[in-house]
Amino acid sequence: MGRAPCCAKVGLHRGPWTAREDSLLSKYIQVHGEGNWRSLPKKAGLFRCGKSCRLRWMNYLRPDIKRGNISPDEEDLIVRMHALLGNRWSLIAGRLPGRTDNEIKNYWNTHLSKRLRDQGTDPSTHKKLSEYRNEPPPMKRRNSNRKQNKSNSEAQKQKVHNPKPTRITSLNSLTMSRNNSFDWTPNEALNGVPWSSSLKGDVDRVGFLIGDDQDPDMVNGSDLECQSGVPLSDHNTTEKLYEDYLQLLIRTEGLDLVQLDSFAESLLI
DNA sequence: AATGTTCTCAACCGCACAAGT
DNA sequence: AACTTGTGCGGTTGAGAACAT
């Protein structure tokens, strides 16, 4: 990549954010919107690197962040989504409105993985530890899935065409953020129908779609809850996502993992 | 009250990728 | 094609809080 680290510049402030810095960042984003993180600190009068600003906004200052303890329902969903998706925190966070990937990651590492272990379950594989009586548990996965993908891709290069979902970079221009508005409803995700018809072209690139039915009501339905940042009041919605995903896994037990991977990725679009 | 240990979580780091030049 | 830029992600760290002795 050949890039100097983002925060290498001397003189930049690091460590905990002050109330004044928070205020400067919030006010700037209220006026100018998200994005252009690299140039934002200078324009906002902050002696921080853009990356740090983005992180602070995403994980702490955003108005739609849900404060307070993670509910049992959320816990349950995190555990089950983790069983399906692994350490894809942003993907899991996308299903928990108002929660950030960092928060979920921390909660997993400090609470949930410990609890699973206490219950006799390997938190990385979600298998019962007793099942490892005759075989050692697999090595803890240190690498992210993306890194894994890279190594896997060497072996699979010729075998499977696995188109990458396109990342929408200009979220700001759509006045959307990752966790709230830029999101599909579970049904949209599972049916392969994006939140906006303008993205339909991208859907083909996702590679693994289920069903052809399009439910026009969904745009005006629960999707709006996401767009407004209002937490899904209906637990059934996330529950349904999980159930559908699980059914998919069961139905397609022999299915190529790469395809499942694509489906998981497609939830991001 | 003092000290040591464990826990929590905000913040940082390095890497990957899409898009632009 | 090669390189740069901007952004996003997951893993890790470390300061402070909470708890135990």
From TrEMBL:
Q: Which SUPFAM superfamilies match?
A: Homeodomain-like (SSF46689)
Pfam families according to UniProt: Myb_DNA-binding (PF00249)
Q: Which UniProt keywords apply?
A: DNA-binding, Nucleus, Transcription, Transcription regulation
Basic residues compositional bias: what residue ranges? Answer: 139-149
Q: Where is this region: Disordered?
A: 115-173
PANTHER family, sorted? TRANSCRIPTION FACTOR MYB8-RELATED-RELATED, TRANSCRIPTION REPRESSOR MYB5-LIKE
- Basic and acidic residues bias locations: 115-134
Molecular function, one GO term: DNA binding
This chain's protein is named: Uncharacterized protein
An annotated GO cellular component of this protein is: nucleus
User: Residue ranges of the HTH myb-type domain?
Assistant: 9-61, 62-116
The Myb-like domain sits at 9-61, 62-112
What domain of life is recorded for the organism? Eukaryota
Enumerate the subcellular locations listed in this protein's record, separating them with semicolons.
Answer: Nucleus
* InterPro entries, sorted: Homeodomain-like_sf, Myb_dom, Myb_TF_plants, SANT/Myb
